[in-house]
Amino acid sequence: MEKLINFQAFQRFFRSGQVGGYLLLICVAISLLLANTASKENLESFLATTIGFGAVNYSILAWINDALMAIFFLLVGLEIKRELLEGELSSVKSAALPVIAALGGMLVPALIYTIFNTGTETAGGWGIPMATDIAFALAIIAMLGKSVPASLKIFLAALAIVDDLGAILVIAIFYTNQIHFEYLAMAGGVLILLSLMNYFGVKNLFFYLIPGIFLWYFIHHSGIHATIAGVLLAFTIPTNETDNESPLEKLEHALTVPVNYLIMPIFALANTNITFRKEMLTGLVSPLGLGIIVGLFIGKTIGVTFFSWLAVKLKWAGLPTGAGWKHLLGLGMLAGIGFTMSIFIALLSFSNALQVSEAKFAILTASVLSGVVGFVFLKSVKKV
């Protein structure tokens, strides 16, 4: 039987994303303004305020980065699952491309950073330019609207997911001091339960979301970044092969507006609070700054484009529908928007406050450069 795809949720996701993208950028500007005025201490004090009880008593910033962003990852994971089963990524050949492109987008920037920083005290930050920020990259491509083919948006979402999962693995292996395997085992048990419910045809979302909360809790306490719980939960939500709304699509509909208009802007407001210092300007041309900027802006572009070309040349994968090589080049530029995960890895890499500030400024510079150049370039490219 021919599969019928319900594209309504995906269309709503990016339609609201266009407006949400502008809101996101406004929140970035507000956060930078607050961080460089007398309001800085008030903002930091507010974000440090703890909310909760017992074992779930966290700062507001932690709730935003670990809990709210897990919901964002859940939404993106739902879309990727549906596309893997029914859409642009449903064949091995088409699904292979974003995975291979993401691999190139991680290896090349890490290599560039290492070349700049070998033998220095900042050599341990090689993981910083490996990450692509899903929220900001999708916001930029959403603002392009119909200027780019829809398949390219799906490709970027898939690439960014693979990229972030890769970054999470890097953090877990190289930047995590201690992993609590007992919590990982409990998370595995919850995941098995969710998978069994899917297998036996349980359709009620309530029976997935409640265990999903426990899945988040166990992963959070395991030492691995908690946002991966959103992706894991998404892949257990049931779908169908008809045009009738499935539980997966129903959850997408429910999450689209709050994620684009609330969660992403709140995240930007809380995490872009970079206080500018004079020393940070010279830090841009230090091994640390150059490693991050060249790694994100040049390394991501080269890595994504070259590995994509190699995959197509070897006939392991095919280009996204309606997209050409110029589209892939522009998408590689957008992949240089590291921001969230890059800043997170920078915090894990350095204990020196000045190095952290210089790394944040370099990440912001590279991300703005990648976003602006990528946007302008893709805007000028005609559809295939």
Entry summary:
The chain is mainly alpha-helical and 384 residues long. It is built from 15 helices and 2 strands.
Question: Can you offer a commentary on this structure?
Answer:
The chain has 384 residues and is mainly alpha-helical. The chain has 15 helices and 2 strands. Strands 1-2 form a two-stranded antiparallel ribbon. Strand 1 and strand 2 form a beta hairpin. Helix 3 crosses helix 6. The longest helix has 28 residues, at 8-35.
Q: Quote the beta fraction.
A: under 5%
Amino- and carboxy-terminal Cα gap? 31 Å
* Number of DSSP helical runs: 15
Instruction: Record the strand order, biggest sheet.
Output: 1-2
Radius of gyration: 20 Å
Helix content: over 70%
Major sheet attributes: 2 strands, antiparallel
Q: What overall form do the CA principal axes indicate? A: globular
Overall pLDDT, averaged? 86
Which secondary-structure class do the elements indicate? mainly alpha
Number of strands: 2
User: Helices and strands, in N-to-C order?
Assistant: HHEEHHHHHHHHHHHHH
Low-confidence parts, pLDDT < 50 over ≥5 residues?
1-5
Name the descriptors.
384 residues, mainly alpha, two-stranded antiparallel ribbon, 2 strands
Q: What's the layout of helices and strands?
A:
Elements: H1 8-35, H2 40-48, E1 50-51, E2 58-59, H3 60-86, H4 92-117, H5 134-143, H6 150-174, H7 181-199, H8 206-222, H9 228-234, H10 247-271, H11 279-283, H12 287-313, H13 325-334, H14 339-349, H15 353-380
Antiparallel strand pairs: 1-2
